[in-house]
Amino acid sequence: MKLPFNKTQIICMLLLCTSVLNATTHVVTVRDNSFSPVTVVIEAGDTVRWVNEGPGAHNVYSVGNFRCANGCEANGGNGDPSNAAWVAEVVFRNPGTFPYECQPHVQFGMVGTVVVQAPNTGVTHQVETGLENEFTPNELTITAGDVVFFSNQGGVHNIETADGSLTCAEGCEGDGQIVNTDPTGFQWEFYLRFDEVASVPYFCANPAHTEQTGLINVISDVLFSNGFQ
Ligand SMILES: [Cu+2]
Question: Is pLDDT of 97 > 90?
Answer without folding.
Answer: yes
